[in-house]
Amino acid sequence: MIIVTGANGQLGRLVVEQLLRHVPAEQIGASVRDVNKAAELMERGVRVRSGDYNDAASLAHAFEGASQVFLVSSNSSGESAVQQHRTAIEAAKKAGASRIVYTSQMGASPNSYFPPMVDHAATEALLEDSGMAYVSLRNGFYADSALMLLGDALRTGELAVPEDGPVAWTSHGDLAEAAAVALLDARIRGVTPVLTGSEAIDLEGIAAMAAGLLGRPVRRTVIADDEYRAGLIARGLPEERADMFAGLYRASRRGEFARTDSTLARLLGRPTAPFRDTLKRAIDCLPRG
C-alpha cells in the first residue's frame, strides 16, 4: 500500500488524485490529521487514518501495511520540523515500508539564507542515514507562493518588498504528477535534479505580467530588509516568521531558486505549466467592480 501523508493538503490531495488514475483505491492510504476532512476519499475506497508527525503511535497505525510512504514536509520549521520528519521516517521503517518519497525543495542546503531549506537538507541526511530506499524530490518553488508574496498588490497596484532574484516557479499540479510518477517507478531513487517550470521570473517580471493581465499598472518598488521585517512584525507576525520571510528574499537574490531544469517536463512527458496560468487564475478570481 502507498501511504500519502498530508492528504488533506493541496499537494497531498493532488498526489492521491494522480495515484487513483493508476492504481486501485484499496492500494492507497491517506494519513491525515483530521479524518473528517477526508470523507470523500473514504467514499472512493481510499484507506484514511489519523496520523500526526508529533505522535509516533498514530503514524504506526496510519502507516500499517505500507510498501511506500509519500512524506510531505512539515509546516513547522527548525528542529521541530526535522524531529517530525525523523519520527515519520522511523515510523515508516518500523511499518515495513521499503521506500520513502519526500518533498524536498530545489534550494535545500545547510547554508541557505531561507531556513526551510536548511530543514530540507537535514531531512535528506536523515533519509540517507535511514538505510531505506528513498527519493528526495527537489521541487521547484510553488507558483502559489508568488501570489502570497504579491499580497494586496493585485488590488492596490503597489508591490513594496525587498530586493529579490529570479525564482523557478512551479505548479502544484505538475509536482503532484511527478510525485506519482516517482512513487510508481522504482527506478527513480536518491536526490532528483531540480524539478522546475521552464522559466525563472523575479517580482519585477511578475508585476509587469500582472499589469498586462489586469490592464492597469502594478508598480514594484524595493524596500530595505529591515523595513520589510518591521512591517511584518507590526502586522502581528512573530519575529521568527518575519526572519524567515526576510531570509527568502536574501536567498532569492543570491540565486538559490533561479535554476531551471528540463527533468520535470521529461517526467511528465509534456511542457510544464507556465507561471502566467497561475497568475491569470488568481486575477480571474478577484472581485469585480
What fraction, in percent, of the residue positions are helical? 40-55%
Number of helices: 13
Beta fraction = 15-25%
What is the C-alpha radius of gyration, as a whole number of Å? 19 Å
Q: What overall geometry do the principal axes of the alpha carbons give?
A: globular
Distance between the termini: 50 Å
Strand order of the largest sheet: 3-2-1-4-5-6-10
Mean pLDDT: 96
Helix/strand structural class:
alpha/beta
InterPro entries: NAD(P)-bd_dom (IPR016040), NAD(P)-bd_dom_sf (IPR036291), NmrA-type_oxidoreductase (IPR052718)
Domain NAD(P)-binding: 6-145
Present the secondary structure layout:
Elements (H helix, E strand, L loop, with lengths): L1 E4 L4 H11 L7 E5 L6 H5 L3 E4 L5 H7 L5 E4 L7 H16 L4 E7 L9 H16 L2 E7 L1 E2 H8 L2 H4 L1 E4 L7 E2 L1 H13 L5 E2 L11 H12 L4 E4 L2 H10 L4 H15 L9 H6 L6 H10 L5
Parallel strand pairs: 1-2, 1-4, 2-3, 4-5, 5-6, 6-10, 7-9, 8-11
Helix pairs in contact: 1-8, 3-4, 4-5, 9-13, 10-11
Task: Report what the structure shows.
- This protein is an alpha/beta fold and 289 residues long.
- The protein has a domain of 159 residues: 3-Layer(aba) Sandwich (Rossmann fold), CATH 3.40.50.
- 46% of the residues lie in helices and 16% in strands.
- Strands 3-2-1-4-5-6-10 form a seven-stranded parallel beta sheet, with helices on both faces. It has a two-stranded parallel sheet with strand order 7-9.
- Strand 5, helix 5 and strand 6 form a beta-alpha-beta unit.
- The mean pLDDT is 96.
